[in-house]
User: Fold TPPP protein from Anthoscopus minutus.
Amino acid sequence: KPAKRLSDSNTHEGAMAGETSALEEAFRKFAIHGDTRATGKEMHGKNWSKLCKDCHIIDGKNVTTTDVDIVFSKIKGKSVRTITFEQFKEALQELSKKRFKGKSDEEALQEMHKLIEGKGPDLTGVTKTVASPTVSRLTDTSKFTGSHKERFDASGKGKGKAGREDLVDNSGYVSGYKHAGTYDHKVQGNK
Assistant:
């Protein structure tokens, strides 16, 4: 019988792990949003606020942005600016009591998880590039003239440092001579 009890508890833990994986995935998506160096293991306060707004945890009545910031400050350590996934779950538990007042703690937490699971950061309001004729005319490298034309190759790709600086030609030819290296070809062609 003890072996059976062990297997029962393992399947229950496996089911819980399946539930938290969607929650953990949402945590990771919000944790790396807007930060190229983020690993997804810790979340900043800015991303915590974004998660609460995008997942509709903030409803304006029971939970406000101030409540979200207070819970974040309470959960994180004194000298730390981020929260881990475990601290994130604590913060959710704290907010679920305020958000779903009429429900038991367990039901409120389940409702909170449903709001977050499978979600990612919204990209509404993010600035998009505008394709206007003026901008495209000004950035078309094939129409550049003078010294600016020298900064790009025929395909329009920048030459980098070679396009920005006058590099000294130490080949022995006069500067501006276009047929460098053709002497042997001309001499042998005549013979």
User: Anything to note?
Assistant: The domain at 22-115 is CATH 1.10.238.10 (Recoverin; domain 1).
